Amino acid sequence: MTVRFDAIGLIVSDMAASVTFYRRLGLPFPEGSERAPHAEAGLPGGIRLLLDSEETVRSFSPPGWQPPSGSRHSLALRCDTPEEVDALYEELTRAGVHGELKPWDAVWGQRYAVVHDPDGHGVDLFAPLER
Questions:
Q1: Contacts of 24 by beta carbon, 8 Å cutoff, 6+ apart
Q2: Dist CA 21 CA 35 (whole Å)
Q3: How far is it, in rounded angstroms, from Cα 22 to Cα 17?
Q4: What's the rounded mean pLDDT across residues 60-74?
Q5: pLDDT tens-digit map of 17-27
Q6: Domain containing 36 — which CATH number?
């Protein structure tokens, strides 16, 4: 058996807000995704980002299912340059996105920042520091 990583799935409370957020990051969600119960965007390398509304997940979950709370994961998006990290963070926070961690030069050699998507999922923005 060969296992291949194929997709990242997120449960979202507001599909339109989530699709808008991820489109702003350059993910190609098809037109109409903001009104769909399930949406997918293909990512470079063949991985997909899957968004499912809470209502959709509730419909096939056991009775009493509740949306998860807290966060034990984040998505990491690589930018080409440290300046892109700064510019993207600024653009997103100006648009009302929650900025969790302002851009900084991390000790591991990356320009790094963290924002939250509309459901509080961490989205790390990073680029290698020029040496």
A1: 91, 92, 95
A2: 14
A3: 9
A4: 73
A5: 999 999 999 99
A6: 3.10.180.10
